[in-house]
Amino acid sequence: MKKSTLATMVLAALISAPSAFAYEAGDILVRAGLTTVAPNDDSSNVNVDALGGNVGMGVEVDSNTQIGLNLVYMLNSNWGVEVLAATPFTHDVTLIDTADNGLGLGDGKLAEVTHLPPTVSAVYFFDTQSAFTPYVGVGVNYTIFFDEEFTNAREDQTFQDLSLDSSFGLSAQLGFDYQIDDKWLINASARYIAIDTTATFTVADVKGSVDVDIDPFVYTLSLGYKF
């Protein structure tokens, strides 16, 4: 009888004891690693007012990898608030000239643009009671563009005054933490961010514009520490 009672008490203690891997309210996770922004871009046609609007050209935006940083504050064992930051991303913008418009601008690199995409998310961690902890999250993103510059070759074609509007949009992500021990962890995540902007410029002193839905997938692999 005593053995049975003791076994029951031990089992109850094990069930009620927190897992060594479980997150708790007040935990702070700091992660740093590599983040790749891979645009899933779709642009409208380039519009030049003096040429009747649509001139039959579009643009594409390439990928870029930088140092990614994020911080998570745990509200309880499942819910946390995450802030995503990174060093500035610089992207090549390519002109796609498929129209017989007589402009002779040609395909090729058009410009470079730099942006920062800080994102704040609500994140839900699944309680697996193991070192592997998957999570999902949704959030809001604000992307600011700066250092927008046409290439020298495009400036020779009279492209000037490039400017991209800042963007505000939603984001969604999934990822996981793999806890090496009670402090260190490895993180991987993938997220989608809605980034839509309008680029304005002049060519031969005539105003032009193009709408670009960048809408990137953002991939991160990082090392983290739990405080």
UniProtKB/TrEMBL annotation:
Transmembrane segments: none annotated. GO terms for cellular component: outer membrane. It comes from the Bacteria. Keywords: Signal. GO terms for biological process: transmembrane transport. Residues 1-22 form the signal peptide. This is Outer membrane protein.
